[in-house]
């Protein structure tokens, strides 16, 4: 019996011990679970509970490293943009930095035919008008004040023909010309001696220019000084001639004639103005100036519109990707065709707003002033619009392909700065004559926009500007040179195009970024 009792007791003790171990293990598990729950609750509290992290204050200690990084990159970005503003925008501001010194590069001929061409070379009276105007030009050149490049030319340089002087202005040998007519002094003597009441002082001299060559140059720099020259010349000749006439005022016949022809004393002479190619209609202003900036912008932003379309060939979404070299060929071809239609839309705007593209101006002579009642004297008759369209097309190629290449090479956000640089450098050398700019800007002769307008020298948006003026106003033509430079730009950009494409792919494949943000 005792043995049975002892065995029962041992069994009971074993059960209690097992229950104790089970209880202790359950307690440990419960404590562990509670600890994990507490830790999770703490983490959730730090993270703001389930879902996205909750916002914290700007000066929160956990944002310290972010603040340092943001401040550093903000300072760097601001410094880079400041340098860009100072460096690139200065290119535009400096265009007129030496205008006063360079005004003399705007050559104006003074050609004195007075008493030097038959039948007025042997009238027995010494010329008065011509020598006075030549002397005035020499005084202006010797003056310390800024003035035009007055150059006295002998009549023999133009075969003793005043019309050949006009031809020289049309051919851009000079920006303007002052012509003293062969009978200038002879008609003054005749008016006083005979009392010719029909004497017209405006027949003494001519002013010849062509403001559609560069209306900004003419109206801002040339015409104001020319007007001042006319005033001074009229005053100078008037004083000299009046003194000579009054020396014979005791002659009753001379007094009667003076009373009949007062204009022979005051103003004595005048200037007939011949604007060979007037800048008209005024709706042509955008076509040869600000409108061409939009040509650059359109060329630039077409890249962003078309690139996602081209990239569909590389995304294997239900189809294999296109071979990369074939994608390059497709992109280039699609871009050229797109420019063809975009340039057509741009050209149609000028047609829609009344610019003449179909000829009809009765004056075709290079030495006669065209009539604004017939609008602009376009250069190629009914073929003018096609030539204008093709100029804008090649202008878009020259301007746009360069933008495409740069966009692929430098990436965002640098392409925005490139656009500003591209606009400023083209505008600085296309909308203003390089002759009056510092020599630094001579690279502008090779810039695309220069060779599309009509400035004065061999190369440069200026090619688009130069060509546009020649086409719309029938000016002295260098259209072959203009197209040649634009085609050269397009060819150079085409050569660079595949390399830029491969570089962009390389950057994407290797995660390269051009910007530090």
Automatic annotation (TrEMBL):
The residues that cross the membrane are: 74-95, 284-307, 328-355, 385-403, 415-434, 479-503
Domain called DUF3533: residue spans: 80-494
Q: Does the keyword Transmembrane apply?
A: yes
The superkingdom of the source organism is Eukaryota
Report the InterPro entries cross-referenced here. Answer: DUF3533, MNNG_permease-like
Mind listing the UniProt keywords for this protein, alphabetically? Answer: Membrane, Transmembrane, Transmembrane helix
Using the UniProt annotation, give all residue ranges assigned to the region (Disordered). 17-58
Basic and acidic residues bias: where? Answer: 17-35
GO annotations of cellular component type = membrane
Checking PANTHER family in the record gives: NITROSOGUANIDINE RESISTANCE PROTEIN SNG1 (PTHR34814)
For this entry, the protein name equals DUF3533 domain-containing protein
